[in-house]
Design brief:
The chain is mainly β. The protein is about 0% helix and about 50% strand. It folds into three domains: about 1-20 and about 235-350, Immunoglobulin-like; about 140-235, Sandwich (Immunoglobulin-like); about 350-475, Sandwich (Immunoglobulin-like), CATH 2.60.40.1530.
């Protein structure tokens, strides 16, 4: 990746140009695609009079009655046996009945003294997995987009699923005054993931929360399968900070983050600096030029940041070790500025099975109307050949898939593909030997501005459970 921080400003100030370079103290990876992002200048557009944020099929509904009652607990008791007498001893030749249990005073223990298995002690496999990702902080008056991913982790299809989202009355859903939205999924196949987005906004300072529930229709009832609560802190600040990056990566792979900064105040920020701190599980590999590197910290000195000026920085990290939350924190400092921070985290997981799946892009940000490439790499890291390797990929609605091809060891691989809207399915690869890899290249056209993503799903004869990963990108005007 080789890119520059993009600085956009009004005609008066001169733009900052910080080309992306690899740190001198770290190794490079020549086999990976490098990026080149030219500096651009543009004025920050005024917000539209009518919201046009994507809602992707959600529709408002009337609030549901959450009151429910639980069934009563089963009664408990004890059993007492009659005392035995010597004259009533049983015949030694009588083997038809089992001897009574040996207890003190011939009395069975009370049921509460016997170890019991209760529902709280049993771990029931979760057949539907719910992931919700949202920015940790947003400036008052700006939208917050919740990215929702629903995955069927079982080996059977899930039918008649209902997704509900109930949110605080401090949140506003464009075009409605209701505080709950819903969407139905008629069918979710084994291993299939369905993505959707919900955009809300707020004019109130504070923490505002959403409750997401996935249920299955059984007759007229909705049986809850999983749920999650996600909150966003709305704050007042002069600089709007947006961090775009992956939510999950495998150990040893790379995670790229794009940081967009906008001075939304009506005054310039003097002696502006950007300070990024990061966890030990992350190792910087490629950065926008001008970074001052110290252990666990990166600093860019911007100087004066005029009103309405935008700055973009790109950071690529190696995911060194497994971590549930490997985070980076972005803070914008200035002599007349305070309390402007945001955070983004990535989960680092071990490689599942013997096939490693990675996704990268060659241009970030991608201008509207231009074509970019996503490379999906499948590598067999096991000791045996993988058979019937199948890959499919899905792009978000603001991307259009225009072409695709497959290569291995520098040569083309004659694998056909079928395109169905924003989903592309490649033919089976009969065999992938140990230590070899396939590179699927997908060309996409940017349709409209915003955050976009390509998600890949991989299966093989070694495992029917798909391996999933995704790569986000930013589309600019």
């Amino acid at each position: 990746m080789s890119a520059q921080p993009v600085v956009t400003a009004r005609p008066a100030p001169s733009p900052l140009a910080l080309p992306l370079t690899a740190p001198a103290t770290t190794d490079s990876f020549p086999h990976e695609a490098k990026k080149s992002v030219p500096p651009t200048t543009s004025a920050v557009p005024k917000p539209p009079a009518e919201s046009k944020f994507p809602q992707r099929g959600f529709r408002p509904i009337m609030p549901a009655n959450p009151d429910k009652t639980d069934a009563g607990k089963p009664a408990e008791g004890s059993l007492t046996l009659p005392r035995s007498e010597g004259s009533a001893a049983k015949d030694e030749d009588d083997f038809d009945s089992a001897p009574p249990p040996i207890t003190r005073d011939n009395q069975l223990p009370r049921t509460e003294a016997i170890p019991k298995i209760t529902p709280g002690d049993v771990t029931v496999p979760q057949l539907v997995e719910l992931g919700v990702y949202a920015p940790l902080r947003r400036k008052v008056g700006t939208p917050a987009t919740f990215q929702i991913a629903i995955r069927n982790t079982g080996d059977r299809p899930q039918e008649q699923l209902v997704i509900r989202c109930r949110f605080d009355d401090t949140f506003a859903f464009s075009g409605s005054d209701k505080q709950e939205v819903r969407r139905t999924l008629d069918h979710l196949g084994p291993g299939e993931t369905r993505d959707m987005a919900l955009t809300l906004s707020s004019d109130v300072v504070g923490s505002h929360c959403c409750w997401f529930v996935v249920s299955r229709l059984e007759g007229a009832e909705e049986v809850e399968l999983t749920s999650k609560q996600v909150c966003v802190d709305y704050v007042v600040r002069q600089v709007d900070i947006e961090i775009v990056g992956p939510h999950q990566r495998t150990e040893g792979s790379r995670a790229e983050f794009t940081v967009n900064l906008t001075n939304t105040s009506d005054r310039s920020i003097r002696d502006a600096r950007v300070v990024v701190t990061y966890d030990k599980a992350l190792l910087p590999r490629e950065l926008s030029e001008g970074a001052d590197q110290r252990p666990g910290q990166l600093t860019w000195t911007l100087g004066e940041l005029p009103s309405s000026e935008q700055v973009q920085l790109q950071l690529e990290f190696e995911c060194r070790t497994q971590a549930h939350r490997a985070c980076l924190t972005v803070e914008v400092q200035g002599t007349n500025l305070s309390n402007n921070t945001d955070e983004a985290c990535v989960e680092i997981v071990p490689v599942r099975g013997t096939l490693d799946l990675r996704v990268s892009d060659d241009v970030d940000p991608l201008p509207v109307g231009k074509v970019g490439k996503f490379q999906i790499t499948v590598e067999n890291i096991g000791l045996q050949a993988a058979r019937r390797v199948a890959l499919e990929a899905t792009a978000t609605e603001n991307l259009k898939i225009v072409a695709a091809h497959v290569r291995s060891a520098g040569s083309d691989v004659p694998l056909s593909h079928k395109l169905d809207g924003n989903k592309i399915v490649f033919d089976l690869m009969d065999q992938l030997d140990p230590g070899t890899h396939l590179v699927y290249t997908i060309e996409v056209e940017a349709l409209r501005k915003g955050t976009a993503e390509v998600r890949a799903s991989l299966t093989s004869g070694l495992s029917s459970t798909p391996v999933l990963t995704a790569e986000p990108t930013i589309i600019v005007p």
